[in-house]
């Protein structure tokens, strides 16, 4: 690979890292060709881009970004590295890895992930990453919590109004009788 080709790959990776706030670095070295193709197919179906790149190129691409990825140098960027990019969903790749591991025991390992600038290192972080909530889910929960007291007050006022109308009707019927 020439220097120009390496520079082009580094530039493309830098652009992908900058454009995708969610990426996972995995080790799928234990997979056969058929299982690798199955993993790539599942990634494609889930809208996840999966690329295999040399660690030195990944390191140089990460160095061009504003965030600090120096903690990836030691344990994450050694050995076989595949990167999973998803532009919108931070837990999509983690969920895919967990589902893939159900059928293929210990075939793929999470080495590290970056979720909106937060770094997660090690395969043991997979469960936490798969339970992350998206920004839309969090906003929905907050709105639901904010609306809850108002709904309770409105419900109480409406039920109180119906009770008052029933009492007035009963009193007017008693007066008429």
TrEMBL record:
One of its GO terms (cellular component) is ribosome. NCBIfam families: PRK00099.1-1 (NF000955). One of its GO terms (biological process) is translation. Forms part of the ribosomal stalk, playing a central role in the interaction of the ribosome with GTP-bound translation factors. It comes from the Bacteria. This is Large ribosomal subunit protein uL10. HAMAP family: Ribosomal_uL10.
């Amino acid at each position: 690979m020439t220097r120009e080709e390496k520079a082009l790959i580094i530039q493309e990776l830098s652009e992908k890292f900058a454009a995708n706030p969610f990426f996972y670095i995995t080790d799928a070295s234990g997979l056969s060709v058929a299982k690798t193709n199955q993993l790539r197919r599942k990634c494609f179906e889930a809208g996840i881009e999966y690329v295999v790149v040399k660690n030195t190129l990944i390191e140089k691409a990460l160095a061009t970004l504003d965030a600090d990825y120096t903690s990836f140098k030691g344990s994450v960027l050694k050995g076989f590295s595949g990167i999973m990019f998803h532009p919108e969903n931070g837990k999509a790749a983690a969920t895919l890895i967990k589902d893939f591991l159900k059928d293929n025991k210990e075939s793929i390992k999470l080495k590290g992930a970056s979720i909106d600038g937060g770094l997660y290192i090690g395969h043991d972080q997979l469960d936490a990453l798969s339970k992350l909530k998206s920004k839309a889910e969090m906003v929905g929960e907050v709105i639901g919590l904010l609306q809850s007291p108002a709904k309770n007050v409105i419900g109480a006022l409406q039920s109180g109004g119906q009770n008052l109308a029933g009492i007035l009707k009963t009193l007017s019927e008693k007066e008429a009788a």
